[in-house]
């Protein structure tokens, strides 16, 4: 099984960015532990701060991967383009968030991804990604 994890803007700063909200672990270090937890799963990782690059990567991942785990970060709440890309491809996408966006500011309650996603996992810290991978492997 092949799973692609795509992270959006500012998530390259995990570890140092707002640690009270996002924790103090870097994504690279978390990604290593995730690969160890799922030795039979081919896990790929892509991060970009650029909306169009995220759309391009969703297109490229379509049919190449069995599942996509997407944390579009702030673009979740603004990007019709990323929402449309998730709708356009046939590989299922699970939307994840580290924080519980429903418990935060009103503008974070809106998601352009969710209506087109297989499901949404939010608020479990970095463990949200593991739960999303499990949703594919245990399906
Ligand atoms: C986030 C939540 C978003 O509202 C925020 O803009 C992020 C991270 C999360 O994982 O909790 O950058 O997607």
From TrEMBL:
Keyword Flavoprotein: no
EC number: 4.2.1.10
GO function terms (MF aspect): 3-dehydroquinate dehydratase activity
Binding annotation for substrate: 71, 77, 84, 98-99, 108
Top-rank taxon: Bacteria
Active site: 22 (proton acceptor), 97 (proton donor)
Pathway the protein contributes to: Metabolic intermediate biosynthesis; chorismate biosynthesis; chorismate from D-erythrose 4-phosphate and phosphoenolpyruvate: step 3/7
Keywords from the named record: Amino-acid biosynthesis, Aromatic amino acid biosynthesis, Lyase
Site residues, Transition state stabilizer: 17
InterPro entries: DHquinase_II, DHquinase_II_CS, DHquinase_II_sf
Reaction catalyzed: 3-dehydroquinate = 3-dehydroshikimate + H2O
PANTHER family in UniProt: CATABOLIC 3-DEHYDROQUINASE (PTHR21272)
Role description: Catalyzes a trans-dehydration via an enolate intermediate.
Family to which this protein belongs: Belongs to the type-II 3-dehydroquinase family.
Subunit (UniProt): Homododecamer.
Name of this protein: 3-dehydroquinate dehydratase
Gene: aroQ
């Amino acid at each position: 099984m092949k799973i692609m994890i795509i992270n959006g803007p500012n998530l390259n700063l995990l570890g140092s960015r707002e640690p009270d909200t996002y924790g103090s672990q870097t994504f690279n270090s978390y990604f290593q532990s995730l690969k160890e937890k799922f030795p039979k799963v081919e896990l790929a990782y892509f991060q970009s701060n650029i909306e169009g690059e995220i759309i391009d990567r969703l297109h490229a991942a379509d049919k190449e991967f069995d599942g996509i785990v997407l944390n579009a970060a702030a673009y979740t709440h603004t990007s019709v383009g990323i929402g449309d890309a998730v709708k356009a491809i046939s590989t299922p996408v699970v939307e994840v968030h580290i924080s519980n966006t429903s418990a935060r500011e009103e503008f974070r309650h809106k998601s352009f991804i969710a209506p087109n996603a297989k499901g949404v996992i939010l608020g479990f810290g970095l463990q949200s990604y593991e739960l999303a991978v499990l949703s594919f492997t245990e399906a």
